Amino acid sequence: MVSQSVSLIDVSSYLPGEPIGADYYAQFAESDDLRDSLMFRAPAFRHHVAPDETAVDMVERATRGLIERHGEEVIETVDVLITHTQAPDVPFYGAGGGIAHRLGMRPSWVLDLHNGGCAAFVLALNLARQLLTSGAGRTALIAIAQNSAGQVFDQPGVRRKAQAAVPGDGAAVGLVTLSDRSPIVGIECRTYGEYAGEMTLAPDPPRKWWQPGTGELCIGFTESKITKVLARGNRQVPEVALAVCDRIGLPANDIDLLVTNQPNRVFLRNWREALELPAERHFDTFDACGNLFGAGIPVNLDRAITTGRVATSAVVVMAGFAHAGDFAGAAAMRWGGRP
Fold first, then answer.
1. Strands (E), the chain
2. Which end of the chain is more exposed for a tag (fewer CB within 10 A), N or C?
3. What pLDDT, in 10s, does the model give residues 200-218?
4. Mean pLDDT of the chain
5. Which of 219, 179, 222 is nearest to 203 (CA)?
């Protein structure tokens, strides 16, 4: 009898270019009402996508680790491809088709997600698990590209703002299969539709993103919005993580490793304190990579595994929230080790 467990059997990641230090932004910094906000305390380093580097390029480079460990045939025979790109190279469609072609895949399902935001990896895991258990195939590839730091946040006008120094670019892929190797034992996804649309673009002078104009696109942060986002994020991520722990019968302080998105140091501290976890059991790369948005969870998971922070049979909980708090998700897996 074929096992119906769904496992995240491996992850692989890619960071573009050389690390960029905080002094890069210091040379451009101007007076900003939000300069002292806890949201925008800069990491020591981050990476930027190259000017001619696409989301497809980033995912292809992130996939190399999987190919080295599992062989090209594992990627070429993927049945389900699920992608998320922070800043689509073309606004009208995602990168799924291009990724499938570049990797030599002919998947039955190609799905581009947008609403998952910084928790897109968890949303994609949930979708992959549902599709594989329903008979849609045996293998899924999840591909996440965060490419807005070196594009949106490095525009000449935007990089003067406090918000510009926090994001970093990177990509990661996860290989999901019908197997018992590293089973996904619980997932919780919650949509908070009342907060949808609260993350806005704020060009000066105001315009639609597609209208011609001189104002550069940036995120419309205000003190009021920041206060609300901090409150929602502090509440939502522990809530979904605790819901998953309750479902699998695991006290939160028995989590072997917590891996989250990483908007800033304040969220990272508050989340582990809410779950009563010591810092060594909450893995992040914030000071090396900055806010990686949706790529944060899989990049951190890859780094944690590669550096020996995840023992075989360890329970790993992945959790995050998106945008201004319109989505949050958590997933737990029991790690079975790399091949």
1. 6-14, 20-21, 45-46, 80-85, 109-113, 139-146, 170-178, 184-191, 257-260, 282-283, 315-322, 327-334
2. N
3. 999 989 999 999 999 999 9
4. 95
5. 219
pTM comes to 0.97
CA distance 146 to 157: 21
- Phi/psi-derived region of residue 286, left when phi > 0, alpha when psi is between -120 and 50, beta in every other case: alpha
In the CATH scheme, what architecture does the domain 183-192+221-333 have? 3-Layer(aba) Sandwich (3.40)
CA distances from 110 to 97, 106, 172 (A): 7, 9, 17
CA 67-99-155 angle, 5° bins: 110
Q: Which CATH number fits domain 4-179: 3.40.50.300, 3.40.50.10800, 3.40.47.10, 3.30.1330.50?
A: 3.40.47.10
The one-letter amino acid code at 247 reads R
**How many helices (DSSP H) and strands (DSSP E) are in the chain?**
10, 12
Residue 242 tokens read as: 């605790």
The Cα 181–Cα 9 span in angstroms is: 6
